[in-house]
Design goal:
The protein is α+β, with helices and mostly antiparallel strands. It has 5 helices and 5 strands; from the N terminus they run E-H-H-H-E-E-E-H-E-H. It has helices at 17-26, 34-37, 39-48, 92-107, 121-129; strands spanning 7-11, 54-58, 63-71, 76-83, 113-114. It has a 5-stranded mixed beta sheet with strand order 1-2-3-4-5. Strand 2 (54-58) and strand 3 (63-71) form a beta hairpin. The longest helix has 16 residues, at 92-107.
Length: 145
């Protein structure tokens, strides 16, 4: 790990959207869908999940990390986790994941899931190191509406 970065971890708000979206676009291998990741969709998500989404902000007010997580009262999921490529290796993602886990535990949820594209080796390695197990008893399916 390289030198620590001075930062503040705080709840994400919709006003962060331009900076968070910019962060997402700077991260290679990061997948987004217009319908799910447009400003209106993220605004609705944050309104439903105000306590489980976080932004890491450096001393200059730049968003250097973000995590989008939510729940339905029964199950929880981490949707997007990103750290600026220029500041990786400083533990920012570990802190963000830790904050989400704490928030979900405080709500009383028993587990959290994360979906990672099969060909995203770095992402899959990261989540495995965090203790997230692969489930081979499920097939993930979706129906576009």
């Amino acid at each position: 790990m390289t030198e620590p970065t001075a930062m503040t971890i705080r709840h994400m708000i919709i006003e962060d959207y331009p900076l968070v979206y910019g962060l997402w676009t700077r991260c290679s291998g990061f997948t987004m869908k217009d319908i799910n990741d447009c400003k209106n969709a993220i605004k609705a998500f944050l309104e439903r999940n105000p306590d489980t989404c976080f932004a890491a902000e450096d001393d200059d007010g730049r968003i250097i990390g973000a995590i989008l997580a939510g729940h339905d009262g029964r199950r929880s999921r981490i949707y997007h986790t990103a750290v600026d490529p220029d500041v990786r290796g400083r533990g920012i993602s570990l802190i963000l994941v830790g904050r989400v886990v704490e928030a979900l535990r405080a709500i009383g949820l028993p587990r959290v899931a994360v979906g990672v594209p099969a060909d995203n080796d770095a992402g899959n390695d990261f989540w495995e190191r965090q203790g997230f197990a692969v489930r081979d008893d499920l097939v993930y399916r979706e129906l576009p509406l």
